[in-house]
Protein 1
Amino acid sequence: MPRPPRLASLLGQTALVTVLPVLAAAQQAAPAPSDVVDLGQITFSVLGADPVGDRANPFTLTGVKTATPITEVPQSVSVVSAEQVAATNAAKVDEVLAYSAGVQAAPYGYDSDTNWFFTRGFDATQTGVFLDGLQLLSYGFGAVYVDPFLVERVEVLRGPSSMLYGASNPGGVVNYVSRLPGGEPGALAEAGVDSEGRAWTSYDQGGTTNGGLAYRFGAKLQRVDGHGAFDDGLEGVLTGGVAKTFGNGGTLTVTTSYTRMDEDHVGGAWLPYYGTVEPTSFGTFDRYFNTGEPGYDSYEREQWLATAIYRQDIGAWRLTNTTRYSWVDLSERAVLGLGYTTGAQPLNGDDSLFRLGFILDSEATSLNNDLRIERTFTTGAVEHQLLFGLDAKHYELDEVQSYPAAGPLSASDPDYGTIPTDGGFPTSVDLRMNQLGLYAQDQLRWGDGWIATLNGRYDLVDIDVTRGGVEGASREDGEFSWRMSLAREIGNAVPYVTAGTYFNPNVVELPLSGDVSPESGRQVEAGVKWSPNERTLLTFAAFQIDREDIVDTRWTGSTTPYEPVLIGDVRSRGFEIEAQGELVDGLTYRASLTSLDVEVTENEATPALEGTTPWRVIEDQAAFAVAWQPAAAEGLTVSAGVRVMGPSWADNENTLRVPLTVLYDAGMSYDFEGGWTANVDVSNLTDEDYVAACQGATTCYQGEGRNVSLAVRKSF
């Protein structure tokens, strides 16, 4: 398939641009990097990517790309530490954001092979997920899966972020920060089980050789079971990395990971509204009802990630270059339920589900590079922290999908054994996407605590897509995005106002009548952040996001099951409150409140939908958790939490409602002598039977029931 020549040439030149400064820098002597923190044995740790611990206002690189405290980032930001991830014995990363403001985590219930996020009412899974500041772009099923074992912290930047990251989700960015070599030397071994049959063991070790080479390696092996899966599955993760500081002050960090998954799909998905949310003639579906077929259902993933980060001081400038290569090979077979054979509800005692087979083979490859230079200087009474960057991305997807016929299945008395026939009109999708962005940022500080942040970025993006040999809406675009903000430090509080724009290219597999320009929009946000001490942070943000020129993909159920539809415009506005701190000695808390108003403001395809709320979106959420470490029982921590998830709509017409849900969580951990820790976590303590979300009357997703997990850890 021919490549667009102009951007391909630019990408080739970019490869030279990113390599030559590093080679040149290696020949120069320079002072030790200013952001290398020496805390005893921690000689490679970088502010913004280091362990968080119990700090409420840590430095972060998300939101400005320079190490900045959360209170000084001119947008709403959350940071979830590795300690918080470990406290929940999390099976997946999307679980750990359940207490974060503005995030609808795991909107499709428990899904063992994908991390799902909505931010400020918009699906962030495909274009809003990043790893170490580089986008994990996905389309179709060509997505990278990140296991919690690989993560040091999870950060959420809410609101449009194109001014730094280029094409991305308007609701915000979820950035995973990797566990990197160069931390405190030692090892951690862990083994655990949960009540659904999951069992895992892991080992992580790091240190520094006598020659000054920092290293880190680890492995995790996990059995995946329960949640309605027909058979247990297996997941393995291997990771390793090294870091070296050279005599000229430059530091090179290289990490790699390999992930292998072989499992069945879980149940509780692809179920009709009637029988899931509302009872029907047979009552309701059993928990984790599986519409698939034993012996036919399968899911296999093989994945490589390799990242190199180089940092170097060149005179007064700091150079940082981050490169990542990823490769994903995915194959799966499943049988999906698509409503009843009799329509929206069973009729005349016939509760048979209409089913369709699904066969997928997908291979995705991506190469990302972000080169940036920064320095701090003063002009008169103003201090400038200046940043320039060049960001390049290449993404390829080769995917074949088919939908063979499958027999019906009784909802009340399932009798499995009808294997789909081969065929199903295989359809290939070939996608090539290139992006090249040039950006600049200036953080200005002056007077009595004033801070202004100015951002501008210009991107060239080209998309070449075909489906079944038919060329889709392939095009090349140039887009400019910006952000301006003003803040002021007043004691421990930092009020701020910010405004900015974003864009996100529309990938349209088939020709679509009318212009297919990139999706674009804008946000205004005002808020305040207050941090009186290192363990306390309170943030408030009010915002409005206007999202324009949306193209969505709708299910048709035919031999070409997906078709592009031009939706129009959607507005999201509301406010968020997030807080963490210490109530009294030994009693800490985390709390969040989200109130959204998400509305379709224009719909060219279906004008009657204007004024409605898109399906799946939970507009109101609240969460509160406490952890108590009693002085009389040293080493003991007892925790409890409550999550309130408001109602949502099962259909875009807003006629079918998914009710509000209240969930309770609890946990307890104890630190024994000799470096041993036992941790128990219970999610959905009262075993609430609920529906996480629906996207139409035929497709609802059950929420996860009570799950009790136990992890035993030993540090060396």
Protein 2
Amino acid sequence: GPHGGPHGGPRFHIAGRPGAGDSPVLDALGSLPPLLVERLLGALELTVPELDLAGAPDLTGLLGEPLTGGFGMATVAGTSEAVHGAAVLDRVRPGAVPLVAALARRLAVHPRVAALLEVSPEVTDEREAAAAHGAARLALAVSTAAAVLHRAGVRPWALEPPGVIGVAIGTAALLLREAPMPPGYAAAVLAKAREEYLLPLGCAGAVQVSGHRFALLEDGDIPDVGFSGNGLVAVVAGGAVIRTGVETGNVRVVLQVSDSPPPEVAEGWDEVVEVSWRAAAGGASVVGARPVEPQLRRVTPPWPGEYRLRVHARGRDDEDGTESYELVVWEAPAAPEIVHARTDRLGHRLRGEPEPVRPEPPESAYRWVRRSSLSEAATVTVVTGADAAGVLRAFGADPARPESLRAIAEDMLDRESIDPWVAVLDIGGAVLAVEYNGWQGSTGPVLTRASSGGRAASMYWNVNALTRLSFAEHGEVLLSEEPFGPLDAPPRLDAVLAGLDFADFHRGKTMMGLTAVQRFTGHGITAEHLARIEAADVAFRIVPDLPPLLPSRPRPGDPLGPHALAGLPESALRDLAWWAAAQAARYAGLGDDPDITASIAARELTPDAHRRARRSQLHDGEHRWVWLALHRATNPDPLAAAADGIEAARYAAGPHAADLVAGVQARITGSGAP
């Protein structure tokens, strides 16, 4: 809006999309992709000044008086000259921009002009038809804008080509929104879709459900139909409607279009029904309460014909948000409906049949986790034979240093850190340890310490679907692995794992893992336990253990060569490892650090050095690679100590890495190795 300027004239602030909300032309201009506006400006800015406007009428009588006096302008960096110029014109010459739009609309329906806007029937290519349709209206808008604005009565700089072209582009966008596409355009779009359509096709996405239904339809809204026939799917004109368990919410839908019938009926689904439907034109979309994702639109073959649709449903009886569907479509003559599976309770109710008695799977008690704050990534550890303080120490946390759980979580988010932390709860007979997006409870050292007085078991999962199920007893880790299928578990865990089929990913590995943890320890986490932890708002930061020292392994891309260290005697390998650690410290400016010099002299990490090495692994830890070089030099495997220690030292040396490698090679040569 205007502000009084120092000379009494109005002053305007113009930034971003000036006038947004009160100028349809400027709003239309601002809604276009910036690159499109710039390309049109570049194409037209030399042409507009050459237009012959000698015969154009003077329309200034239709406008109000131009603004006078001084004014100031401000623009956001990167704003197009066309956007800026159009905004200036709209402000300093009130009524000019709306007049351009009004006259362009009137001209577009004038018989002589309308004939010029028509696309030739000979244009049958979709892109060419769309381009001709748009170009004609842009030409009309440019001509109208130039004719109106060339006598607008404002300073010449306001009528430079960018301003006129900006008004024209915004006006053309309005005209195109209101104008129907050429008569042959729909046929051209269909022809292009048919030419480019390839089989097989697969897509997936979330679909918003309302009224217990979504659909696969060519056009129109989802009709209100019954499902008493098969309890799952009803055929309608141009598609089919699917009955869901959830009334309102999202369901996961996978759709596959094949050029032949599926070779077999997929297992693991509660309900599977196959029906025939006829496509009037083709190109059906998955339809929900709201517009679906682009990949679910116009997905069936874009031509008419008879099709088969096999609908698979899972989780309609559950309330844990895991309800999902798979739709399989292929071209085939009309045939009777086939019910391949009918096992969920909802289907029986809809068909008027007695509901089946199905025992709940053992992991069903943990469905609540999928709707909790632990749903994406966490580790839940249960420990017996220890108190809360002992469990905290086993995790590497200090029981005397509690902090706010919420504050730690916010700190991790602000720093984009994954430093470990844990919250604990004594649940009577066991201690529950919960790590949000952490994994320390799945590591061997923590499990060993935590189980020293009894048992410890943990289930870890993350957003990438990685998991780890672990059991330990009296300081011995019995099992710790990713549960994909049958686990290589000792016999004492047979009862713990009975009935838990980790190969069936539909059942949920996280829920089955938590069930196994509860069986092994006699205790499990509940929603009430988690609520108590979060209400208490107490957690503890963890100083993590150092990474495990692994035996030697192949090292592709080793700058020393694949066999450079293999022939060295054990003493030479040990010497190399500690020499590299000392060089890493020297390059980092820590050559005189007392903890480091003492560790190198003793060829083992001193207690103080060990604590500093652990802390170096944290987000704000210092000299991580120096401490890793020292730690790796202690590896019981001499070849791994040298190879892995040199690798860490190279990172610690930074710009001096080449000098360090050259020093290693010189020492290898001097050792007399083959």
